[in-house]
Amino acid sequence: MLLSLFTAGVYAENQKVTFWSKVPNEQLAGEIVDLMTDSELLSQTFMFGWAGAEPPQLLYDWVNRGLGSVKVFGWNTDDIHLVAKSINSLQHSANSNRFQIPLFVATDQEGGWIRHVKGDTSITPGNMAIGASGYPIDAWYSAYYISREIKVLGINMNFAPTVDLFTDHDSSIIGTRSFGDDPQKAGILGSAFSAGSQAAGIIPTVKHFPGHGDTNIDSHGRLPVIDIDFETFKNRELIPFIYLIKERVPAVMSGHLSFPQIETSGSPASLSKYFLTDLLRNQLGYKGLIITDDMTMVGATSYAGSLSNAFKMALEAGNDIILSSTTARLNESLWTKNLDLMSTDENFHERVKDAAYRVILAKLEYYKSGNPIAPLYPDENAVDEAVPDKEGQKFFLEQACRSVTLDKNELFPLTESNGGRILLAGSLNSFFAAGKERYPEAGEFRYNYDNGPNETQWVIDNLPDLAKGYDTIVMCVANENQRKMVDCLYGMCKKVIILSTMSPVITEDLTWVDTILLGYSWRCDYSLEAMISALAGEYQIQGILPYKN
């Protein structure tokens, strides 16, 4: 290792090769990794997030060390102008390193309820709404407009699309993030989403390989176990990924998911050489980057025993980028132990070098491509013109209208003549605004969107008294507590209409209500406007339930 450091130091004096050298990509990536120290190689495989609005000095220290990538999380993004400014500063810091290798800057902007970049970015209908409309062009344009908004901030990689299937209807971690339960359809829509992302200049990352849909366990808290045989796995979970591999998706995220009938050790797929190297790379022929899900999740560390061992196992399994939501200290064992191992274990050294090569080659292909790409040094003053995307606003409303599904129809459309006195019960201002526009004489009953047990009971105690003065109650339902609130209207001889704004399965047992409309979307003004306008009969509903009951 000392010889390697000495050689690199001597070469640096006469070095002409940088990331921006006019050399063919594969040749240049090979030359750079051959010249890199062990420290530089290992750093390229790490991706760190940070706490708070601005990157701390510690993250800049890692960038100066040669950190390959950073991740923007939801807690960083209240001020998107500051996000652009921070990314600009981090990229300038990366450019000061001897090879001038820029950062990959990633986030989770899936659409729907996973929206890490906040501010004025669009709250979109999301994947299950796309699955209900069924049009690949909706997936393409959703990704395209989402990508244009984050691109102006300097973000160049998006951890989307999610192609996990809606198999376990009780799942709180996937739910409406899924396109539905049909593997072929998820593959087609996921491929269209990926293409739309790339057309806008963003690298898509399909997740969570090899499939998170058949479990209600969140790998943040413990390792999910999906106990299915290989035939089921091959014909269900793998199908969407096969579609995207054929379309040459540039990045795949490995999930902290155990399939004990397939990988008998019980190892999470993210730490499994069988899943990532033997299956994904060798059997399925995948050529792009493999990126772990957050390694601080219990689903990874509980199996590995420690974070440093989890990083080691992840690299050995075949991951190229190891993600941590927090910025490690400079002397943490995930760094020191693995750096020492590179000098004593030739196989591990070659695996890290291969991973660094793949990362640098992907950066060369992205930054030196002819496609429109995210600005290397974003301009915070350009944010307001691009966010929210003005063309996207029109599209997302149209897409929401195509997705609305009529799940039960006994009072539809709703008019003042067949509805009598109407009461609107819900949380969001956009619901009441759209409702009052169509039914100006309607009454209002408001409750919080994220209502706890005390407020739930307050609604149950008070809504029936108010409802006595009305003939029809139109009620928004977004979660289990709001679903419980509906029952207080049972037996009142009132007409009840439910607008389901998140997981559609929570209203399946409401056989006594008159009408149910499904919108599939979290806090989405476009979906609420679409449901209310559909309820008023302003267009013909065409959405189809994207899963089997």
Write up what this structure looks like:
This protein has 549 residues and is an alpha/beta fold. The chain has 22 helices and 17 strands. It has helices at residues 2-14, 25-35, 38-44, 57-65, 80-95, 127-133, 136-151, 183-199, 230-235, 238-246, 273-283, 298-304, 307-317, 333-344, 346-367, 383-386, 390-403, 416-419, 429-438, 453-467, 480-486, 525-535; strands at residues 46-48, 69-72, 104-107, 109-111, 114-115, 157-158, 203-204, 206-209, 251-254, 289-292, 322-324, 405-409, 422-426, 443-446, 472-477, 495-500, 515-518. α14 crosses α15 (346-367).
Task: Provide key terms for this protein.
single chain; 549 residues; disordered N terminus; alpha/beta; 6-stranded parallel β-sheet
Helix % is: 40-55%
Q: Largest sheet, order of strands side by side?
A: 7-6-3-2-1-11
Residues in β-strands, percent: 5-15%
Structural class: alpha/beta
DSSP helix count? 22
Described by the principal axes of the CA atoms, the overall outline is: elongated
Give average pLDDT, whole number.
95
Radius of gyration, taken over Cα atoms and rounded to an integer in Å: 25 Å
Cα-to-Cα separation, first versus last residue: 60 Å
How is the main sheet built? 6 strands, parallel
Oligomer: single chain
- pLDDT under 50 segments (min length 5)? 1-13
The count of DSSP E runs of length 2 or more, i.e. the number of strands, is 17
Question: How would you sum up this structure in a few lines?
Answer:
The protein is of the alpha/beta class and 549 residues long. The protein is built from 22 helices and 17 strands.
